[in-house]
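Appendix B. Chain record.
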Amino acid sequence: MAVGIAILGAALPAARADRIVVGSSLSEPGSLKASCAHACTLVQRSIAAPALTLTSPVDGRVVAWRLVGGSPSFAYKLRLLRQEGLTGYYEGVGTSAPAVPLRLFGIEEFPTGIPVKAGDAIGIDLAPGAPITYASTAAAPNLVFEPPIREGLLATRGVEASESRELYFDAIVQPKPFLGEVFPAAGPLEGGNEVAIFGQDLAPGTAVAFGGIAARVDFEGPGRVNVAVPAGLGPGPVPVTVTTVAGTTKAPAPYVYQPRDGAPPGTNPPPQSGPDDHARCLVPRLTGFTLRTVRRRLAEAGCGLGAVRRRGGEGSAGARIVSQHPAPGTALAGGGRVAVVLGLANR
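Structure tokens predicted for this chain:
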């Protein structure tokens, strides 16, 4: 399968930061442009580990994607792919609407809303001759699918491009909300009482439901919402769910509606010390973020940064957290330290 490569001149602008970015950091000098002789899907390959494609570190939603060096004469599409085990076969699992760049140079951002799972790879659909900026690398051959991979078809294998390159496109992922605690965890059947829900990656417009019944929500910040509990359908436990544009998450423990005449002996939940009664740290999810963003997320959660271990390429602008200890959701005393490993898992 032949893959045509066109070489043109280009310039690269500065990149933006503080988001979970899957793909190129868009920060390295790049002056070359690639294209396919026929319609194709190009899949970015890992620079740190050439046998791996770049993948999302979290479940959530791709809310935007960016491209450098496209052409107003062509339409481009971001594509998500999922590998079947370790077979090397991929299937298409989502695509953006076609986007036409407004200029030949610079970073252009296109809104979208594609659900993504941890491990999904990103690709870009190119029409014949459509250019995309790239930089030559030591070991990063792209996967090429001709014709473009499609959803709902049998999984296929790509072929490696004839040269190693970092393609200048990426996907911006908003993680699904993470929930740690509902406090207090019980209340009257008639509702009307207020509870606090603690977590991470909450957002304005967050929706909350108790046993499927929508509640009124007051957004306090990415780590907390205050909620007016709706009336229950009957006494007993119900699941609490939180929904953002990135998806829906269920709280780890149910909320308990208590009977109007008082709960029978032994059915009341044990007394809780409120999250605001003493300093505490609810460990946030840190994987996929830059060290700068991690410091902010830890501070918002009442935690501190512990040991930072660095793995190859830590000096790069694209370095991000690849692992953490303890795990997200762990409750620590206020100021508890979280150790992280900084590397290039998404490069």
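Further analysis of this model is presented in Appendix C.
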